[in-house]
Amino acid sequence: MSAKLIDGKAMAAEIRSEVRRDVERLKAEGREVTLAVILVGDDPASAVYVRNKKKACEDAGIRSLSYELPAATEEVKLLELVEELNGRADVDGILVQLPLPAHIDEKKILWAIAPEKDVDGFHPVNVGLLSIGEPGVVSCTPAGVMELLKRSGVEIAGKEAVVVGRSNIVGKPMANLLLAANATVTVAHSKTADLGEVCRRADIIVAAVGRPRMITADFVKEGAAVIDVGINRDADTGKLCGDVDFESVSEKCGYITPVPGGVGPMTIAMLMRNCCDLAIKRK
To answer: Could you tell me where the DSSP H helices lie in 186-262?
Structure first.
């Protein structure tokens, strides 16, 4: 493999220890950083995510409050809980684990979280601040991708970046962050004509499209940095794989993230960073 492997696990551990230091400093000043996590229903994947987030809180010295509600919980009850947590002086961040049961309007719940407690960066106020280049809370996965690039020494300013995928959670905020770092950004998606040609211009490719091994070596120019946000199950082997065909692309690009062990660990590390930053701001 000619590409430099970007180790997300190692960088996430660095960030978590930086957060731990800040959390301990706040504790010494009599301020305990607290994250409230709400899980509705018994979706097994969501339960695993919530468990991982609680473990990360413990590791960073962040107090976590856990609210595990039955799947039949009414929307109005969930809104009341969010409102109560918004008003609590001892809560710095509020996280509602998605997806929510079908009878609950996800948008209504996410928009009910106070922007200054929105650790996920999904509230329209935070999305708006990002789009006009003002400081706010940035959603964890794109924020993690920026850290991976910067800490690996990948030059961003003046470079061509292509983001494949236009979701509100990854694609759009990713494009805004790269723009803010002075890259020339193209957002490509399912309707993009000749995706290969668009990607071949890129010095940086961020693949966040949710299609296994879609980005192959012929999409990538020599020496590019390739960040794989995708998490898919390989239909044949059942193993996890990304949106990038790691074997072929790693022979051609300059930097690459693996799946697993690339972007994934960074997402939870940035969640801890966001929660700690919100506590510092509120202090």
So the answer is: 195-200, 246-249
pTM (2 d.p.): 0.94
Residue 53 appears among annotated catalytic residues: yes
DSSP state, residue 108: H
- May I ask the CATH architecture of the domain 139-264? 3-Layer(aba) Sandwich (3.40)
159 part of the active site: no
Please report, for the chain, the start and end positions of each structural domain, with discontinuous segments joined by +: 30-114, 139-264
Q: 97, 172, 228, 252: which is the annotated catalytic residue?
A: 97
- Report the sign of the C-alpha dihedral through residues 161, 164, 166, 170, in that order: negative
Please determine, looking at this structure, whether the domain spanning 30-114 carries the CATH number 3.40.50.2300.
Answer: no
Which of 53, 159, 172, 252 does the annotation list as catalytic? 53
Q: Which one of 92, 120, 228, 243 is the catalytic residue?
A: 120
Tell me, what DSSP letter sits at residue 92?
A: -
Query: pLDDT per position in the chain (283 positions), as tens?
Result: 589 999 999 999 999 999 999 999 999 999 999 999 999 999 888 999 999 999 999 999 999 999 999 999 999 999 999 999 999 999 999 999 999 999 999 999 999 999 999 999 999 999 999 999 999 999 999 999 999 999 999 999 999 999 999 999 999 999 999 999 999 999 999 899 999 999 999 999 999 999 999 999 999 999 999 999 999 988 888 888 999 999 999 999 999 999 999 999 999 999 999 999 999 998 7
